[in-house]
TrEMBL record:
The lineage of its organism: Bacteria, Bacillati, Bacillota, Bacilli, Bacillales. [4Fe-4S] cluster 1 binds at residues 24, 28, 31. It catalyses: GTP + AH2 + S-adenosyl-L-methionine = (8S)-3',8-cyclo-7,8-dihydroguanosine 5'-triphosphate + 5'-deoxyadenosine + L-methionine + A + H(+). Binds 2 [4Fe-4S] clusters. Binds 1 [4Fe-4S] cluster coordinated with 3 cysteines and an exchangeable S-adenosyl-L-methionine and 1 [4Fe-4S] cluster coordinated with 3 cysteines and the GTP-derived substrate. The gene is moaA. Residues 315-334 are annotated as: Disordered. S-adenosyl-L-methionine binds at residues 30, 71, 122, 193. This is GTP 3',8-cyclase. Gene3D superfamilies: Aldolase class I.
Length: 334
């Protein structure tokens, strides 16, 4: 009988998020500090072959969907080679990429040919000066070029990730919603999360995603929940009446979606994270090559996965049942 990755709460895990590097060419304000980040040396980063071996084992346990993340995954050379290796594994049906879009335009055709099925492009502002401020130096023109490249090579759906931040980009909600009226893309609004923050700064910038629906109402746009947008994550999806595209709300703080969690994470340095927020990690790298030991470690990680991440308690500054991670989002893979 085939073993399946099912935790003690009955949640079936068929989705693995793989961080291929903790390095990034940008320094987005919600992800990492401007200076002082210490990145893992290359020898501590999983090789493509090691990632392949882990995924091969997990495919035998029912994992069907993968997402490559970072840091910025495209700072890793020859990423299309990894995509090709992973797409050839029996049972793997979907390979997605989350990228900041700076390098994607030049790699879109190679990645698509290798087996990439979908892309999420981070774009937290549509204004060039503000985008440069949030990313600490990013060029929005390169991101927009990457968006067009994704259309050109036929990736579908194409998603834009927007982390809403009070006083930084929350006045652009209408502009992002208008994009969905005109084009077949999916804008995903994401709540600011307390990942790796040791101060209260994130609370000051936190915006509940109920604000997005309020903006729809204020503009006279009728938005209804939609199940037509394909995805593996926790987005609650909507479509404005008559719109070519759709938008989604990812609200881990105001309304957690832990009861339907289907994902595990593999960090660039080889750690299994059963939950994004908590500090628990299990290093699988020394076990690669021993398929049964790799399986057992993933089951061990699932055994301690909590029922929810309690980010709402962090917002309210209430006590929590576990220890939050001190790793930055770029070190975990989101």
């Amino acid at each position: 009988m085939q073993r399946r990755l099912i935790d003690r709460f009955g949640r079936v895990h068929d989705y693995l998020r793989i961080s291929v590097t903790d390095k990034c060419n940008l320094r987005c304000v919600y992800c990492m500090p401007e200076e002082g980040m210490e990145f893992a040396p290359d020898e501590r980063t999983l090789t493509f072959e090691e990632i392949y071996e882990v995924v091969r084992v997990l495919a035998g346990l029912g994992v069907r969907k993968l997402r490559l993340t970072g840091g910025e995954p495209l700072v890793r050379k020859n990423l299309e080679q990894l995509v090709g290796k992973l797409s050839a594994i029996p049972g793997i049906e979907d390979i997605a990429l989350t990228t900041n879009g700076i390098f994607f335009a030049g790699k879109a055709e190679q990645l698509r040919a290798a087996g990439l099925t979908r892309v999420n492009i981070s774009l937290d502002s549509l204004r060039a000066d503000r985008f440069a401020l949030i990313t600490r130096g990013g060029d929005i023109r390169k991101v927009l070029d990457s968006l067009e490249a994704a259309y050109r090579v036929g990736l579908d759906p194409i998603k834009i990730n927007v982390v809403l931040m009070r006083g930084l980009n929350d006045d652009e909600i209408d502009d992002f919603l208008k994009l969905t009226l005109e084009r077949k893309l999916h804008v995903r609004f994401i709540e600011y999360m307390p990942i790796g923050h040791d101060d209260d700064g994130w609370r000051n910038k936190y915006v509940p995603l109920s604000t997005v629906l309020e903006r729809c109402e204020a503009n006279g746009w009728r938005a209804a929940q939609s199940e037509t947008v394909y995805g593996n994550g926790p987005s609650q999806n909507y479509r404005i009446e008559g719109a070519a595209g759709a938008f989604g709300l990812i609200h881990p703080v105001s309304d957690h979606f832990c009861q339907t969690c289907n994902r595990l994470r593999l960090t660039a340095d080889g750690n299994i994270k059963p939950c994004l927020y908590w500090s628990d990690e299990f290093n699988v790298r020394p076990l690669i090559g021993d398929d049964r030991a790799v399986e057992d470690l993933f089951f061990r990680a699932l055994d301690i996965k909590p029922e929810n991440h309690e980010m709402a308690e962090a917002l309210k500054q209430q006590g929590q049942s576990h220890t939050p991670t001190i790793r930055r989002m770029s070190q975990i893979g989101g």
